[in-house]
Amino acid sequence: MTTAAAQPSQTLLHLAGELLTPLPEGGLLWAARRLLVVSDLHLEKGSNFASAGQMLPPYDTGATLARVEALCTALRPETVISLGDSFHDRHSETRLPAPYAERIRALTAVHDWVWVEGNHDPDPPAHLGGRAARVLQLGPLVFRHEPTGEVGEVAGHLHPVAKVAGRGRTVRRRCFASDGARLVMPAMGAYAGGLNVLDAAFGTVFPEGCMAFAIGEARVYGIGAGNLVPDSKIGGIPVRLRRGLR
Questions:
Q1: Number of H helices, E strands in the chain
Q2: With the C-alpha atoms ordered 231, 212, 136, 39, is the resulting torsion angle positive or negative?
Q3: Taking the model in full, what pTM does it have?
C-alpha cells in the first residue's frame, strides 16, 4: 500500500484504481466524482447518554455538524454519503433540537445526500431530506456501513484508530485504514470511540494487514505497520473497551 503523489499538506491514496483524499476532518473526498464520504456521525449520542444518567455536555451534534458543514462549504461536493450510524440510536432524530434539524435539511437540500443504513439507525430520517440506501455501488467502489472485505469497499462501523510509537512516546489518533483494495473510515462523531487497527476485528477485513492514515491537526499522515502498537490493558481489559466504543 503506497500513497500517491500529493502536495505537502495533502495525503492521497489509491483504492481499487481510484484516487481518493482522506481529510483531517475525517471525511473522504473522491474528487473525480465530486463525492464526499462521512461516517459514523452518531448524532445525539450525548442526549442518549444523558437519558441514562451520564451527563455529558450536549454539544456533540453541533460540533459534528460544524465539521460536515465546513467540508461541504470548502469542497462543494455534488454527492455526500453518510456511511451509516449517522444517528446514535433509533430515537435520536426525535430528540434532535430544531436548529440542528434545520442545519441538516439545509445540507440535504444542496447536495445529493445518501443516508447509508447503519446498525444504530436502520430507518432513514425521511423528514430530514436525502435518500436512503443499504449499499451503494459507484463504479469500482461500493459503500456500506459494516465492512465485509469486498474489493473496492468503503465502510465504517469499526471506528479505526492508530496508536503510533516513536521518540519514546505514543500517540493515539483516529485514522483511515486501507490495504489498497478496501478502506475503513474513521468515525466523525464528536463522542465516538475508537478501535485499534491492530485489533483482531480488522484481521477479517484486511487479511494481509493494512496501512493507517492517521488524522493530525491539519493533515493526514500515512503510518507504516512497523510504527503501529496495540492498546495496553488495564486489569486484563483493553483500554478501548473502557472508552465506550460505538
A1: 4, 19
A2: positive
A3: 0.86
